[in-house]
Amino acid sequence: MKKTALFPGSFDPFTNGHKDIVIRGLSIFDHIVIGIGYNTAKKRYFDIDMMVNKVKLAFEHEPNVSVEAFDTLTSDFAKLKNAKYLLRGLRNTSDLEYENTIAQANKYINKDLETFFLITSPEYAALSSTVVREMHKYGVNIDKFLPYNLS
Ligand code: ADP
Fold it and tell me: What does each C-alpha distance from 108 to 3, 111, 114 come to in angstroms?
């Protein structure tokens, strides 16, 4: 059976670190759905439809990756996409603590949904959407952190 994983996140913006997780995830999963979520706790900086289009461009030569926005519970969106796996990235122990809580919650909601974690590649360990966003706010060019051009 085809193994589909959902890679959910705010992706505000989607960075080279996120892309690296997807590319490496493709050696484990047949198909990866990148789900750009409206996180109720975070007001977005980059428009979600613009981000969907940019991430689609970044994977235009990769038929086993699709990109969609969603505004439901992650586990409901996974079910809708027939994804039995969630893919997430880990950079450090803070990520681990946060991801542990989220993974336990998702497991509670749907016991058949397994979360897989990939440790960040060292070159992306310090790359965070929050920092990239802050740089952009203050006029710093952030293109080298992204797998697409913003302009
Ligand atoms: P969320 O707001 O849902 O935490 P993010 O968009 O910040 O989503 O991140 C999505 C996932 O990608 C998370 O699992 C996060 O830990 C992971 N991630 C973020 N940046 C990197 C990076 N540079 N390298 C590897 N994984 C990363």
Answer: 22, 6, 11
44 classed as catalytic: no
Contact 6, 85 (CB under 8 A): yes
31 a catalytic residue: no
Distance 71 CA to ligand 1 centre (A): 18
42 among known catalytic residues? yes
Asked whether the bond before 13 is cis by omega within 30 degrees of 0, the reply is yes
* Side chain identity, residue 83: A
Which residues 6+ apart lie within 8 Å of 117 measured at CB?
88, 89, 90, 99
pLDDT tens digits, one per residue of 87-107: 999 999 999 999 999 999 999
Q: How confident is the model at residue 39 (pLDDT cuts 50, 70, 90)?
A: confident
Question: What's the whole-model pTM score?
Answer: 0.96
CA distance 63 to 113: 24
Ligand 1 centre distance from Cα of residue 12 (Å): 10
Nearest 5°: phi and psi at 37? -100, 150
The protein residue with its alpha carbon nearest to ligand 1, atom 4, reads: 9
